[in-house]
Amino acid sequence: MMQNNNITPEMEDRMVDEAYQNLLNIYLSSNHRKKVEIIEKAFKFAREAHKGIRRRSGEPYIMHPIAVATIVIQEIGLGSTSISAALLHDVVEDTDYTLEDIEAQFGKKIARIVDGLTKISGGIFGDQASLQAENFRKLLLTMSEDVRVVLIKMADRLHNMRTLQSMPANKQYKIAGETLYIYAPLAHRLGLYAIKTELEDLSFKYNHPAEYERIRAQVAASEERRNELFARFAAPIRERLDNMGLKYEFTVRVKSCYSIWNKMQSKHISFKEVYDLYAARIVFECDDPSAEKRICWNIYNEITEVYTKHPDRVRDWLTSPKVNKYQALHVTVMGPDGDWVEVQIRSRKMDDIAERGFAAHWKYKIGEGEEEEELSSWLSTINEILKEPEPNAIDFLDTLKLNLFANEIVVFTPKGETLNLSNGATVLDMAFALHTDIGMRCIAGKVNHKLRPMSYKLASGDQVEILTSNTQTPTDDWEKYVHTAKGRTRLRAAINHQKRIFTEEGERRFKEFLAAHNIELTTSMLDQLIYKFGTTTKEELFRQIGCDMIALNEEMFIKKDPGSRFNWWKRNPFKGGSKEEAKADEPAKKGAPIDTKAVYHLTTKDGKSNYVIAKCCNPIPGDDVVGFIKADNTVTVHKIDCSTLARLKASQGSRLLQTLWEDHNDRYEASIHIEGIDQKGILQSIVNIISTNMSINMKRMNVTSDNGVFNCDLDVYISDAQVVNNLCKEIKKVKGVNSASRVN
Fold this sequence. Notes:
Layout: H1 9-28, H2 36-49, H3 63-76, H4 80-88, H5 91-94, H6 99-106, H7 108-119, H8 129-145, H9 148-162, H10 169-189, H11 193-207, H12 209-221, H13 223-243, E1 248-254, H14 257-267, E2 278-284, H15 292-306, E3 309-316, E4 329-334, E5 340-347, H16 348-356, H17 361-364, H18 370-387, H19 393-404, E6 408-412, E7 418-422, H20 427-434, H21 436-440, E8 442-447, E9 450-452, E10 464-468, H22 485-516, H23 523-532, H24 538-546, H25 579-584, E11 600-602, E12 604-605, E13 608-609, E14 612-613, E15 625-629, E16 635-639, H26 643-652, E17 656-661, E18 668-677, H27 682-693, E19 697-706, E20 709-718, H28 721-732, E21 737-743
Parallel strand pairs: 2-5, 11-17, 14-16
Antiparallel strand pairs: 1-2, 3-4, 4-5, 6-7, 8-9, 8-10, 12-13, 15-16, 15-17, 18-20, 18-21, 19-20
Helix pairs in contact: 1-3, 2-4, 3-4, 3-9, 4-7, 6-7, 7-8, 7-9, 8-18, 8-19, 9-11, 10-11, 10-19, 10-26, 11-12, 12-14, 13-15, 18-22, 19-22, 20-22, 22-24
């Protein structure tokens, strides 16, 4: 975007000065020791370094570091060192200044933070995914030295998301996908709840603009009624809290647009059916840390005297805080209007930690280094992952996400020691959590004194004894039994060690075979062998040779003449068949490059499409879709909320295409799930709507009835998404039908 010609340099200078003064005012009103001189020095240095440089939006570049520094103090709560590093975080990356210049001017501590931020500048992934994944590992490793690096990076990503409208559409998809895939879970794990929520909502806004606006409008439209309901709900509780003599805040928090949409998608329900649209929160003041838990339980008792509690929805995070130190007491009660309402009970300190995570501890710390101690248990797990990094960048992030977004359970060893594991953890996970050797030799477990297999899922409160055998060795099948990041990482490390042995043996055999038959080793030869045997790397090819899955023989190689190095055997000697069959096995020829910046039109001519429908999400015309350019230049079309696409956005965003459906005559398959009360004639009514009223062809219909509840899974052939929506609306009109919605 070009600079606005109506803005003079003097006006720009005034805008920069006002933004910086606002930053200083927020810092001066905080509880931090006042070190204005270092912040002033960093601001002047950064302003001079970025002089004449503009952001894509057209504003002076220095506005970005000021905005990041403002988030650092205002929303995360960090001090002068972090504010200075935030002001300087792009200097080494984008200007001629070096890290040595930063260290000479500002000292080692600020230079180390800037260095950590420079290493992971830009996205997690660029065109070279594995290189950028390594940069992200560096970020996590730096966390163990100084957690402020990742907290400032969170502020940087948050400001980039807030200003994402200035980027082209394909970049918006990539950055929003990457943010939702890894930054939001990382913020969640660090306890930065407010930032995590905003990152999710902003990602949702750019990935699903129409859905975002629709839900935002519905939330706004229901605000007046929601406030009335909350006032009625809160009145008797306020009276009791006043009688307790507490100083408190009693507020209502509405679910974020992303959370509402996520629930609608996963539960296949409408906006009106999201019963927990809002939650109430009681935050009380308490100067005595030893009294906080007692007051929480006293408030709980008063609430449950007024309203009936949900028996399965009490969450005690006081006795067993989360790994990120989140503490609160949650109780869900039946309100006066018949709705379930969750009430979160916290002290002021608990609320600060819940909203601002580990950084909030700095406000309450007793001695130096306490904030690092708060992170130690989580960082030790992260370092376990980093010690054995995944060979594939996406596998690395998947493993990391297991540990980022995990809800926790607490289990006991036979000696009564506690162990925190992620929800869904198995006996095998616990074995690996205790020690790698125990995990490798695990054969089963005794859970509450009963024999259970390795795959048995544990629950909070279980007492677990791990049974081992010296003859046990891990296999690939074990991956199905591990759920935690630590378990998966340690298991893969052991299996990879075994694979390395086979790979080295296979490479030795391969080279000996070539030498014995006087065949020269070339890259072209390896590429064709890798393709022919369906492997992805030369290491996998060697591994299969090493463990006797591929047998070396002379028919794999044909010499045309002494000057010829290698020629592929036209007929596959391992499968048999004709030359035509062998030709069909060859890779597709690459087409002309596709412009990723232009809108790609999805067309069908003469029965042939210029795209391929992704089987993972099965989009149809009318759906919001994104194209992905494969290696052979074919375009695969995914729904914008497809989980596979989320991975592709994070790893290969440069291959994404903004797409547009064109006119077409094809028929597409769609699936619909119907629920209702079973009654006479309901199936006939549904069939009449489909076949007679709307003239839609059915592929499959599966109907079940259980204790009067009717369920129907239906596959139909339609022309576009609007037809599916109209069909669902008509089916909902049938007497007894409760819901009808399209599913993937």
